[in-house]
Amino acid sequence: MSAANGIRLTRRQLLGAGGGLVVAFTIPACGGETKTPATDLASNAWLTIRPDGSATIFATHPEIGQGVKTALPMIVAEELDMPWERVTVEQAPIDESTFGRQVAGGSTSIRNSWEPLRRAGATARALLRQAAAETWSVPVNECVAGNGQVSHQATGQSLGYGELVERASMLKPPPESQIELKARDQYRLLGTRISGVDNRATVTGQPLFGIDQQLPNLRFATYVRAPATGGTVARANIDGVKTLPGVVDAFVLDPVQPPKGLRGGVAILAETTWQALKARRQLEVEWDFAAAATDSWETLRSDGLERAGQSGEVLFDDGNAERALASSAQQISASYVYPFLSHAPLEPQNCTASVEGNTAEIWAPSQTPARGASMAAEVCGLNPDQVVMHQTRIGGGFGRRLYNDYVVEAVAISQRAGVPVKLTWTREDDMANDLYRPGGLHHLKGGLDEKGRLSGWHNHFVTVTSDGEKPSSTAGMRLGTFPQHLVKNYRVEQTLLPSGIPTGAWRAPGSNALAFVSNGFLHELSSAADRDHLEFLLELMGRDRQLSWRRGSGMDTGRAKAVIEAVGKQSNWGRTMPAGQGQGLAFYYSHRGYFAEVAEVTVKDKQVRVDRVFACGDVGPIINRSMAEHQVVGSVSDGLSTMMGLEITFTSGRANETNFDRYPMMRMPSAPPVEVVFLEDNPSPTGLGEPALPPAAPAVVNAIFAASGERLRELPLSKAGWGWMT
Amino acid sequence: MSNISLSVNGKAVSAGNADPEMPLLWYLRDVLGLPGTKFGCGIGQCGACTVHLNGSPVKSCSLPLAAAADAEITTIEGLAEGSQLTALQEAWIELDVPQCGYCQAGQLMSASALLASNPKPTDADIDGAMAGNLCRCHTYRRIRAAIHRAAGATNAADDQSSGSSL
Ligand code: FES
Ligand code: FES
Fold this sequence. Notes:
- Chain A has about 725 residues and is of the alpha+beta class.
- Chain A is about 30% helix and about 25% strand.
- In chain A, strand 1 (about 5-15) and strand 2 form a beta hairpin.
- In chain B, strands 2-1-5-3-4 form a five-stranded mixed β-sheet, with helices on one face.
- The longest helix of chain B has 14 residues, at about 105-115.
- At the A-B interface, helix 6, helix 8, helix 17 and strand 28 of A face helix 1, helix 2, helix 3, helix 4 and helix 5 of B.
């Protein structure tokens, strides 16, 4: 056995292992020839340690700016005791049978990878220690691994990991039960600040993103969809468009399972994106709108407000809310409204695809690349194993790229044209063809007893439905929505308004809107009772317990109270504020993360300045402190940007806001300072891409009330003339 | 037929028969194969496409190739001197500025033009110079801190020592 070039560690699903993931080694083929380490990296290897002591760790999940390309390998490196400087991170191929689900969504990457990644690192470390023990003929428990080497104190010997690779690669991995994971106080890397692994490439403009892919003979495509969702092409001047400068092809595609699959439209391919876009100006399409959406937000909103005041179908009915309200010492009611939103990731949807004969190769910024590959196979009539999907870095996800409509379009265009294609959506395409955060309306009634305690909660929720039977995607209210299970008498009624607007997951789906409603109204109640809001929230949480509405994911009221109390201390809550200034507090539990946030604002003539936001979160132990804080700051700012100025309205099923001139995202001068504190007692980490967002807007809205006495119940605030102070 | 010539990152380029109306952005990305300059909106709103034209920041999505004739263009690919990063690029890495990273080429081009004309900018100077660059991930506070750091500010109000998490 001459040249085992590396240990390769892979993860496999073993049949009959109780569904658990086990770690296994694949030993590289050993033979006379010495392969370069690069060729030894099999597609299913998580981790390769090379004879020079360096390691390559695969980042398995899509990187959308949430930092997993750095954080996931950090977990492996920690258990391996590998110095971070010796680690190279590579994006893994798409292979869910090897790596498990490779999805960026629902703040699940860290939570789902924590255990298997630690085991991967620890297993490799165990093998290296074993190899050292055999080399020195000493007991393995006397061999200590650390900082990329194994040492034996009694004899003063030590060997670098690289020197142990050959022997280690011949060993059998120890059984899972014998793998020792580090205790938290032994962590050297986790919890520190590590700069993102792609940062150097980012600041030097290297091609990282989906939109950066280049191929020989690549053609550049634009795709024109109906202005109202569900419209199809009746007729188009294709022949005329084909003669325009640089145009190499143009054709009509019929819809296949729209809107998440292929929407009907016209493809134009040219030698440059610009030529395709210029030709598009000459395109004349007669659309068939028979099956298209006809919504108007103005009508939905006014119908919704009217219906909200009436009664609806009972969705949840705990205790007896009607009676509790009737017998309450004080009752208040209010209506809350929030609009549709676009995701608007800064990198527009795009995909590069080459479909040739029986194979398809795809480069896509997708949050669900494996699903994208199977959808591509389906639309092209290929077998899944004839499709190769490459992960690229993704210029923002926010849920938009959980869907693969742009992937399906690109492969369909490439297949039809018979050339490799880069399809780039314009910003207008992106905002007019989104799967939007659904708008909604709530009419709330709340009761307070004689001591000012919450005694009853009644919410009539008016939401949209695309099938006439159930709420559209992410437009429903789930069991356990705050404050369900915290107030004894709780009733939710629901009314569905038909809508043809496609909806989908938007950062912290559901929670991003519902937190505004519940936290705003709770503050109305505590204000009506003339009570301190922090105490009111703590009282609402009650005794420490785990609410168990969804298996394993129910809120722990003890953890909730801890972040509320901590943010109170952090922000010096309750102190007297100068005139025109105010503090506001909100709490939300989502994606298994707990966040309490206090905003301090200055208000004058409907102009708001957010002077500071204090955010206290509990998502268990922090992996990469730099990105963890960054996610919280970004989420808070995203929530406030959305709160102030963003909405998509529709007229005749068409989005009225299709570029940033009419969708005014927050810019640098308005970005508030955010001070982040984490409570890290819980041993298991959960995700951080979403849970800090929901409390931000209501914290500010509550602060505006404290500062000005104005209660704001409709988003975006700009609709009623509010804006950022300049 | 145009006979536009320009210099991109120090190299002379002859645009030959390129459409003079083509925005510089697409010429850089699709013709020259320099994808570092990003497309975000196409209407001058987001700044993702920012490059330097004779040292001044311009939005290349809104600049026809003809308007770049005889100009010296610098893109993100040409910001560093070979492998020697600028102080701004170093600061971006040290403060771990990017989230998704997509806006950052444009942010860096705007920031470097700012520092060239104003080596010690205040927060207000930075806000003024950077307000044309959107960041969908909201990395604004770290961008501002990184500009201060690159400018050599030791007590920038917004640096990590101030208690704000960046
Ligand atoms: S792409 Fe040029 S400003 Fe947005
Ligand atoms: S880092 Fe994502 S857009 Fe700025």
